[in-house]
Amino acid sequence: MEKSSGKRNTAILISGRGSNLKSLIKYSKKKKSLIKIVLVVSNNFNAKGLNYANKYKINNIFIKYSNRKIFENRLLKLLKKNNVDLICLAGFMKILSGSFIKKFYRPILNIHPSLLPKYKGLNTHNRAIQNKDKYSGATVHIVNEKLDSGKIILQEKVKILKSDSVRNLEKKVLKIEHKIYPKAIIRFLTSY
Ligand code: GRF
User: Fold this and answer.
1) What is the reported pLDDT for 108?
2) CA of 76 to the centre of ligand 1 (A)
């Protein structure tokens, strides 16, 4: 815990576009926000999200993912150096090992574009449309060693219209993601 402001020192892990990172930065800038983003890490050198980190002068780094062990060891060192006490995965496309989760020993949250436990993994929108689901949505959950399976913190749904394409649905769900990730962080930090 950062002592002066009482905000949690938070690291955001990304792999690409970074729209959730952007929404979390926006939240973190609020006076009453419960987090301070002290570090942004990407496993992808070209991740667009890194531009947001630069724009807002947030310490950011690309860590090459040559293999999981090397990546996670470098990451752990950085987290320690920056006194990170919360990790938020935001479009981070690698799976963290059980050993990393144990060693970090602090909460890790993730946002997933489906109504978990439905559609773990990739291509969630396509799968929801193919199955003719009436609703899709987004979920924020605690990360454990199993993919997209940890305790759910917050979930919000959106109606799938017959006319919805995968792209359309992605846009609608993304809007929800940007809304619920900050809300879920607040819920998590105030009630767990
Ligand atoms: C989001 O849909 C997130 O739920 C998923 O990957 C996507 C990342 O988007 N895990 P962005 O990089 O935050 O724009």
Assistant:
1) 98
2) 23
